[in-house]
Amino acid sequence: MPNISRDEVAHLARLARLAVTDDELDVFAGQLDQILDSVAKVSEVAAEDVPPTSHAVPLTNVFREDTVRPSLEQQDALAAAPAAEDGRFRVPRILGEEQ
């Protein structure tokens, strides 16, 4: 007997704006029940004496040091641009916001 009902699956489908058939409700109820059982098993394994971690092995920073180096001048970069304005690249507006 699944722990999650067809009505709960139908409710979740409505919240997610998914169109599901009656047959799919039964299939999804079983699948979601298996997922919930798996999560419950993982929760049982996690003991209080084991500290929570985000990675199984420690990570070290592999970034290089920042160093100032010569680079392209602003006017040279803008010289090849199709459009420039106020020392910046001008690009087509993609949002309908007014300035």
Automatic annotation (TrEMBL):
Quaternary structure and partners: Heterotrimer of A, B and C subunits.
Reactions performed catalytically: L-glutamyl-tRNA(Gln) + L-glutamine + ATP + H2O = L-glutaminyl-tRNA(Gln) + L-glutamate + ADP + phosphate + H(+); L-aspartyl-tRNA(Asn) + L-glutamine + ATP + H2O = L-asparaginyl-tRNA(Asn) + L-glutamate + ADP + phosphate + 2 H(+)
UniProt function note: Allows the formation of correctly charged Asn-tRNA(Asn) or Gln-tRNA(Gln) through the transamidation of misacylated Asp-tRNA(Asn) or Glu-tRNA(Gln) in organisms which lack either or both of asparaginyl-tRNA or glutaminyl-tRNA synthetases. The reaction takes place in the presence of glutamine and ATP through an activated phospho-Asp-tRNA(Asn) or phospho-Glu-tRNA(Gln).
Protein's UniProt name: Aspartyl/glutamyl-tRNA(Asn/Gln) amidotransferase subunit C
E.C. number(s) listed in UniProt: 6.3.5.-
Listed transmembrane segments: none
InterPro entries linked to this entry: Asp/Glu-ADT_sf_sub_c, GatC
Enzyme class, broadest EC rank: ligase
Gene Ontology MF, one: glutaminyl-tRNA synthase (glutamine-hydrolyzing) activity
Keywords, sorted A to Z: ATP-binding, Ligase, Nucleotide-binding, Protein biosynthesis
Native source organism of the sequence: Amycolatopsis echigonensis
Top-level taxon: Bacteria
One Pfam assignment: GatC
Source lineage: Bacteria, Bacillati, Actinomycetota, Actinomycetes, Pseudonocardiales
Family to which this protein belongs: Belongs to the GatC family.
Single biological process term from Gene Ontology: glutaminyl-tRNAGln biosynthesis via transamidation
